[in-house]
Structure formats: structure tokens, C-alpha cells
Amino acid sequence: MPSDQTFAKLPGFRDFVPADLALRNHIFAAWRDVCRRFGFQEYDGPPLEPLGLYVEKSGPEIVEQLYCFADKGGRDVALRPEMTPTLARMLAGRSRGMAKPIRWFSIPQLFRYERSQKGRLREHFQLNADIVGEPAVSADAEVAAVAIDAVRALGLGRQDFVARVNDRRLVTAVLDALGVAATQRGGCLAAIDKAGRAGPEKTGAALTALGIGASAAAALAELVEDGSREHIRSRFAGDDRVQAAMLPLEEHRGILEAMGLGDYLQFDFTVVRGLAYYTGIVFELFDRAGEMRAICGGGRYDRLLELVGGEPLPAVGFGMGDVVLAELLRDRGLAPDAPPGCDDFVIWVEPAQRPLGISVARRLRGAGRTVLYDLRHRGVGKQLRSAARAGAARAVIIGPEEAAGGAVTLRDLASGRQRTAPIDAIPGALDADSTTSGTGGGG
Length: 443
Ligand code: HAM
Prior knowledge:
By secondary structure, this protein is an alpha+beta fold.
């Protein structure tokens, strides 16, 4: 019985028609290639995890956005909103005995019940590249370089995007220097994190509402406005902890400068990252114009593996989404052309030549060529139109004469030039480029 129901796509979810999937695959191919060049190995995990993995470890923002439910066995489960807790869980059970540092990457599809808007959906794919087991700043610089190169590999350059870098330890040292109590720290970090979008007034109000005291709130509002390294250095000139907390960032910059990536870096006191587990240097990639949401975010999280029951292992990594990146590529005309049509379109003049045509198509496909033919018998003119519609480069035509002589007629569909070639020489003969002009061949 025909149904009168229509089924709309869920908000925030995407259909990938071939042209969209071609762009997604293009992005994935670039990501995989960059990760391979940096010696990362690909892994994956389950899309559904125990709810508890996120409740404790990801922080309140992500937990509010979870797709979660009780499964038929009564387990509380959640669709993965991010990959880092899964990575921590996987390594907690395996890392003992593994050579360190571990360099792993993955491209999971993630689910967050967010308000859908430009650059933010309810599902996205995210490149995750993480180094586990190495506390040195060079590991932080290495993953930042992977992130920068993963965007550069798609044709975007220093005029298009920037990496904004900060250190959670520096922000904590500044908060301590301003007399902010440890209990107010989380609220302050959240207000600083939102400062870019909220503006100075709302940020000032949010900080005051935390009850941190007028002078500390004013000093923080000032840092949010001008949080340059020079400003922080002079404002906290007498504070050894703040001064010391700036050193890892200097080393980080030095390493990335040695890689020729210094121009991509920008220190930014407001980058603190919304997730709960970060402990050190943090960074985010943004389009230079600042019009879009973050392309990527990451940082150091030295305690997460221990928190999920593993050995205490330092870790650092990032997540880079496909949504903003695809928007940027389309915007800059860097999305690849539609997927290629076909190499050969096989045409038979009469139904009697169909078995031979199908076997020729089979041999060409076996040789790696993309081959199509009409699935219903039609006149040669219509088959040629099908070939043109399919974007075929060449028609392989078989009429009674060709069949009797063990040959095919090859027609270059752009120039109209054609020649005959013996079937026995397929695919070699079909690949040879000597052609003769003519119009025959059963057309
Ligand atoms: P995140 O900042 O939540 O970090 O996400 C990283 C990136 O994923 C964002 O910068 C953005 O490009 C993309 N993204 C996140 N949510 C959405 C959404 N709703 N729609 C489209 N794109 C989105 C993490 O997830 C960390 N686990 C990353 C990490 C890995 N840190 C260390 N290792």
C-alpha cells in the first residue's frame, strides 16, 4: 500500500551525494597522507560507548550534547561525541608493553546534539592524531605540525588560516597570581573560552558574576582584550610562576619555526579549550578572516589515560572536523571536480553482438578501466548519446562485421576519430594511441 508519509532528513545530518562524497574523500586522502608522512598509524573504535566514559572525562559542554539512551540490555550508552576518551580507553588496556611514543590517528564520525548552524552539525567526521607516552614539548609541536600540514595539503596556506596557541598552565598561573580561588577556576576558564564570541562586556559580566573580585575581573577582561605575550610578561614581571609558564610556548614556537611553520602561529590568551581534560599547551586552527568556527582544536592531556584506568601516560593530540574545512575549500574554489565519468562505453549494433560486447567490457574492467554499457538494448544512436552523457572518453563499438572479424571499432568521442583493433589484443590494443580518421564502425 502506498505510504503518504514523507521522511525528511534529520536536522544537522548530511546526505553525501557523489560530488559531496568526492570532496569528503579528497579531504580524507590528504589527511591520511599527511599522517602517514609523520609516521602515524590508523586505528578505529566502536561508535557506541558506555555513557560513563564521557560523563566524567569530557566535561559538561559535551555531556549536554550527548546522543545517549539505555540499550535493550539496560546499559547506558552514548554515540561517540569525540574520539579522545575512546583512544584513552583503548590504550589504557593495551599500552603496557607497547613501544612509546605511540602515534595513532583515526577519522571517526562523531555525534553531538548541538544547535545546527554554519560550520556546526549534529554529525561530523574528525581527524584525530595523538602522540601518547611523550611529555616533551617536541611532541606538542609535532602534532601541531600535523594539524597545520593536514590543512596545507588541501591547498590552503598562511593567508587562509592561523593556529592560535596558549597553555592552560599559563592561564592557571595568571589566575592564581590574580588571587582567583581554585573553585572559581573552571568558571573563569569557561568565560575566557567564550570571550571571543561573547565580547568584552559580557565576558566582564560573566567574570564578575563568578564573584572573583572587581580587580581580578578587570585584569582578566584586560588580558582578554590584549593578551599578547609582551603584555603578560610585563604585567606579571615579578611573578616567577607566570614567567616560567611562558617557556614551553617559546620552545614550541622555536620548533615550529625550525619546520618553517612559524608564520602560522599566533599566541592567544583566550584559547583555553572547552574540554575538561587538557593540562598544558592547547591550540585551535581558524580561518584568518575569523568568519568561521574552529577548523581544529587540541592540546596536551597528561592525566586522561590514568583517569580511565591505564598507566599514567602523557598525551597530546587534536581533532580536525570536515565541516568547516569543506566550507573553506568550496569558498576558495579548492574542491575537486565531480568524480570522473568513464573510460570506455561499449556499444553493440544488434542484440546478437551483446554477449561479445559484455565479454569485451569485462576484459577492459579487468584491466582497471571504468567501463559502462546500456543495460537495455537500444539503437546505436541512443547508445552513443548514453556514452556522451556518461562522460565516456571512448566508444568501443561492435557490429556484425567487427564480430565476424574478431575486432572492435574504437571511437574517440572528443575528436570523432576512429580505428579498428583486434579483440585478442585487448586491453593493449585498446590502449594504443594510433588512430585513423573515419566514420564507419557500425555507427
Ligand atoms: P573539539 O574542539 O570538541 O575537540 O573538536 C575538534 C574539532 O572538531 C572542532 O574544531 C571542529 O572542527 C570539529 N567539530 C566539533 N564539533 C563539531 C560539530 N558539531 N560540527 C562540526 N564540526 C565539529 C575534540 O573533540 C577533542 N577530542 C580533540 C582532541 C583530540 N584533543 C586531543 N586529541
